[in-house]
Design brief:
The protein is α/β, with parallel strands linked by helices and 492 residues long. The chain contains 17 helices and 14 strands. Bound molecules: pyridoxal-5'-phosphate.
């Protein structure tokens, strides 16, 4: 890669002066300095002498003279047929900071929001790819139709026009929003116009946009307890006053909260996260009625509907809402794979402009290439076929997981098998805390999540939340065996 070599050499003392008798010495000195202070790193390939000469506005013979000096002094080496490369500086004093201004400190402070976001972040291993088994929230990654996706991406690049490489509409491509509107009608009883759909990079992104345009510091927000920790951290960072609603076997129980004027209720009705409970019809009506009385919004995070509805399908809250109170969040990151970063939301009319404005002024729009491929994936019926395959695979793996987990870990845990969705909760029968177990398993690349971390009030929960289908049956069995061995060691 040849970056702006002219600027780099200038910063290291190269200047062009026609009165200068020996430009090559100046050029050699600038190169030497750049190598010693590591602006040019070991292994860096110098641009060809012809290119250097033209970039710097000097003759090629001048460049070659400077190169000769660098070769003689072993700052660079020549590789036959390939060019000149920077050598590792030997016994040379390396000065990394060439600035003469002393570093004094005294920088501007972070905003309150900046501090809050930093305090609420969880760093260790958060983004690591360690531990696909049994990380919650992953579909069967090994059956994703890579070849089909590749073909759709290739088709995109075959047809793309120069103007399509420019910026695009914040709310998303028309073709994807039309296909989505159709998909949502069929699968979620969601009847909406494509113009009401805003394509985002995922549910968390949608939630970020919605909560930022609605929340002031100290505004009340209602959340289920336990809940999705990232949503909790986001609302905390924005300074919300969070009220926890308990979850029972019918889902969110409104009788357990006391708040005056919440800005919104964040809920996961089709598959309560992480308990996997499906909200009953009665509770759904109660929630919509309560929201109307309180004049508030409901944020319906339908992150997992494809998996939670295959046995006894229930529509969405959005589909039951006649008052424009439900903000609907959907994602493809769960069904396809999380690295896709493609989701969507449907917001009441009065929120469309503010949400789009914040989106436009932050991340602009989701990748056009992925939007196009996703649109074709839906239109050509691949999504439907993939969904069926995912459901069959998940059903099979759930059985295998339950059987092996109970065989090997049954003494230590009781597995809750009634939940819907792609994860299961195992309640710990031992005194070892779930947080310690999470740590110990991760040391062996097994990722399980401590149930207690999903609670937003002090709690005595002690269990493991585990995604059961991201890896194949052989890996499921091997991983559970390993967990059994780790448990045995922990018990003694
Ligand atoms: C309940 C819930 N909502 C939303 C998300 C975020 O999904 P996305 O990857 O689309 O941001 C997750 C991810 O695990 C989740 O568990």
């Amino acid at each position: 890669m040849h970056f702006n070599i002219k600027g780099l050499l200038a910063r290291n003392g190269f200047f062009l002066d026609v009165k200068q008798p020996q430009i090559y010495v100046n050029l050699y000195t600038a190169f030497k300095k750049a190598i010693l202070n590591r602006s040019l790193e070991t292994g860096y390939q110098l641009p060809p002498s012809r290119v250097l000469a033209s970039d710097l506005g000097i003759s090629r013979s001048t460049v070659l003279k400077a190169i000769d000096l660098l070769l003689v002094e072993n700052y660079i080496i020549a590789k036959k047929g390939s060019g000149y490369y920077v050598r590792a500086p030997k016994n040379k004093k390396i000065k990394l900071h060439i600035s003469t201004i002393e570093k004094k400190g005294g920088y501007p402070t972070l905003s309150q929001k900046g501090r809050a976001f930093s305090e609420n972040a969880v760093w260790p291993g958060e983004d690591s790819i360690k531990g696909v088994a049994f990380r919650p929230g992953l579909p069967p990654l090994d059956i994703f139709p890579v070849q089909i996706w590749k073909k759709l991406i290739d088709d995109y690049w075959k047809r793309v026009t120069p103007s399509e490489l420019s910026y695009c509409n914040t709310i998303g491509l028309q073709c994807l929003r039309e296909n989505l509107a159709h998909y949502l009608k069929v699968y979620r009883n969601v009847h909406c116009h494509p113009d009401q759909i805003i394509v985002t990079t995922g549910s968390l992104h949608s939630l970020y946009l919605v909560s930022n345009i609605l929340l002031e510091t100290e505004d009340e927000v209602v959340m289920e307890n336990p809940t999705y920790p990232m949503a909790y951290r986001l609302f905390k960072s924005l300074g919300a006053n969070i009220h926890a609603a308990q979850v029972d076997k019918e889902g969110l129980n409104l009788n357990t909260i006391a708040c005056q004027q919440p800005k919104f209720v964040y809920t996961t009705p089709s598959c309560q996260y992480p308990t996997g409970i499906k909200m009953s019809m009665l509770r759904r009506y109660e929630l919509l009625k309560w929201a109307a009385e309180k004049e508030t919004f409901i944020v319906e995070d339908d992150y997992n509907h494809e998996f939670s509805n295959w046995e006894k399908p229930l529509g969405s809250l959005y589909g039951m809402d006649s008052q424009e109170r439900v903000i609907y969040l959907g994602t493809f990151n769960k069904l396809i794979h999380p690295s896709l970063r493609l989701g969507y939301m449907i917001v009441p009319q009065q929120l469309v402009d503010p949400v789009s404005a914040l989106y436009q002024q932050s991340s602009r729009f989701a990748s056009r290439q992925n939007q196009k491929a996703m649109s074709a994936f839906i239109e050509k019926d691949h999504l439907n076929k993939h969904l069926r395959k995912v459901i069959d695979t998940a059903t099979e793996r759930k059985e295998i997981f339950i059987q092996h987990f109970n065989n090997i870990m049954g003494d230590s845990f009781s597995l809750d098998t009634l939940s819907v969705g792609l994860h299961l909760i195992a309640h710990n029968k031992h005194k070892i805390t779930d947080v310690l177990l999470e740590e110990k398993f991760l040391e062996h690349n097994i990722r399980v999540h401590a149930l207690s971390k999903y609670h937003i009030l002090p709690n005595s929960a002690n269990g493991l939340v585990m995604g059961f289908c991201s890896v194949n049956p052989k890996q499921i069995k091997e991983t559970i065996l390993k967990m059994g061995e780790i448990m045995e060691r922990l018990k003694v």
